Amino acid sequence: VTRVERADIVVIGAGPAGIAAAVSASELGASVLLFDHGLEPGGQIWRHRAGARVPRTASRWLARLRRSGARVLRGVSVLDVRRADDGSPFEIVAEHDGSSAVVHARRIVLATGARELFIPFPGWTLPGVVGVGGAQALLKAGTSFRGKRVVIAGSGPLLLPVAASLATRGARLAIVAEQTPREAVVSFVSGLWRSPSLLAQAAQYRARFASTRYATGTWVTEAHGREHVTAVTLTDGRRTWREDADVLCTGYGLVPSVELARVLGCDVRDDAVVVDDIQQTSVAGVYAAGEVTGVGGAPLALIEGEIAGTAATARHVAVGSLMHRRDALRASARRMRATFAPRAELRACVTPDTIVCRCEDVTFAAVSRAPNARAAKLYTRAGMGPCQGRTCAPALSFLCGWAPDTVRSPVEPAPISVLATDSTSSDSGATS
Amino acid sequence: MSLRDVRIVVNDRELRVEPGITIAAALLNAGVQDFRTSVTGAPRAALCGMGVCFECRVTVDDVAQQRACLIAVRDGMRVRTGGEHA
User: Which of A75, A365, A427, B57 is the most exposed place for a label (fewest CB within 10 A)?
Assistant: First the structure.
């Protein structure tokens, strides 16, 4: 069954940016539909189980969302976003509980967030190897890591809260390996003197795994095991050693999830959606906010969401002070991304036999014979599986310098019944 | 174990699990290590934990290819792991 609905504004993604956009637009009187993948609004950063306690900022925004009148649809996969031809500019096709929904909207706010950047190395496909954010997500979803020997090896500020959570919940942390060189980390931290709250937060996290070594300039080169990870190899570029591990958490920061933006034809530069001063993309009526416009954390995402939600209502509301705060946060976000960008040595970890595309089990040897992502897809099926290249495309972009291939709808796999109802409904006005 | 626990069946084995957790969490807590078998026959399990990577695909109540990290456990749910491609 296809449900057809209408809304002034559809917000896609219910993390901080999407929540702030939905709240702002709704409080100004717009009818708002907020779609999310997850079981509860909050996105990855505020992920929580129904009824569970959340941080104060999160609970304030979630309460405001409940009061705002915005309708929240959970467990939704957005399959396609396109221009409608019936006067309401946009049509969003989504799957919800095995059936399809078509929503006509005057404006769209993309708050699709980001995902982890995984860089392949031998053994990274073994069970027990998870993302850094992946471990946090699994923990919040009820997974116990109690008593497990855990190695964390990756890059970026996310390593700290994840190490803190795992240690607090009874994991035995072997080491936290940050690939960024010591000098770069020190210089980044000393540049944070303007943000004492960030420094205090980092210190609090560090205190929760104080007995574990935080090794800068150190990265993982291999995960060992037959059916499951049992050990990992680490290096600091001079010395190479093995650590026993039941779990390896690895991830090299985040990459914006720009698939829907690209389906809509929005300009994307440096993997992020390009927006103007009021968060509007290059496509009129489509706004973007949060990590999808460049990874910068929840405080920045909230401000961008407020600006986007307000602008999408087309009401004249002053957002000057928000823009000022946004621009300051964006500057420190750029510094953060530059500091923790993956080092060139990580390209050397991959071997010819290393699987790069995990959906289709395509090795690096097979993929690297192709001249670009499109050719690799055609000849090796890399990026053709259910994740549609979401994991391997950013990895190949890092390893081979390839630009991502074009995105086509449906942007997520969907049952044929859902796709069938979709095409019936969208063609219903046409002669065939 | 408490009265609030929900009962799920994983590969013919009955588990009592905390309500509200995801299938992925329930499987990992029960020591299930391979969620699916890859196209070349290797075991795979949850990687991203947030619905992006599709590595945690299992069969839920006879529906194949469901992402275990996105679905909460429900009483009476039947989960099958280790399936080829799923």
Answer: A427
Q: What is the pLDDT of residue B86?
A: 44
pTM of the model: 0.92
Reported as a single tens digit per residue, the pLDDT across A246-304 is: 999 999 999 999 999 999 999 999 999 999 999 999 999 999 999 999 999 999 999 99
Return the sign of the alpha-carbon dihedral for residues B24, B27, B30, B36: negative
Instruction: Say which residues have a Cβ less than 8 Å from residue A126's Cβ, sequence separation at least 6.
Output: A223, A225, A227, A228, A229, B43
Contacts of A289 (CB under 8 A, 6+ apart): A17, A18, A20, A21, A109, A110, A111, A275, A279, A301, A304, A305, A307, A308, A309
Give Cβ neighbours of residue B61 (< 8 Å, ≥ 6 apart): B77, B78
Choose the closest CB to B53 out of A37, A135, A358: A358
Nearest Cα to Cα of residue A251 among A125, A155, A157: A155
Separation CA A206–CA A226 (nearest Å): 33
In this complex, which of A127, A141, A391 lies closest to B22 when CB atoms are compared? Answer: A141
Q: Is B52 within 8 Å of chain A by CB?
A: yes
Task: Please answer yes or no on whether B49 and A133 come within 8 Å at the CB atom.
Answer: yes
Q: Looking at the complex, does the CB of residue A134 fall below 8 Å from at least one CB of chain B?
A: yes
**B56/chain A closest Cα distance in angstroms:** 10
From chain B, the residues in CB contact with A129 under 8 A are: 47
Q: A73 with A35: CB under 8 angstroms?
A: yes
What is the C-alpha to C-alpha distance for residues B72 and B52, in angstroms, rounded to an integer? 17
A39: pLDDT strictly greater than 90: no
Task: Copy the structure tokens of residue A271.
Answer: 């993997």
Residue A60: what are its φ and ψ, rounded to 5°? -65, -45
d(CA A218, CA A225): 21
Tens digit of pLDDT for each residue in B5-28? 999 999 999 999 999 999 999 999
Whether chain B has a CB inside 8 Å of the CB on A417: the answer is no
Half-sphere exposure of A23 (CA within 13 A, CB side): 22
- ipTM value: 0.96
Q: What is the helix (H) or strand (E) element at residue A240, kind and residue range?
A: strand A240-244
Q: Which residue of B has its CA nearest to A141?
A: B21
Interchain contact, A142 vs B22, CB within 8 Å: yes
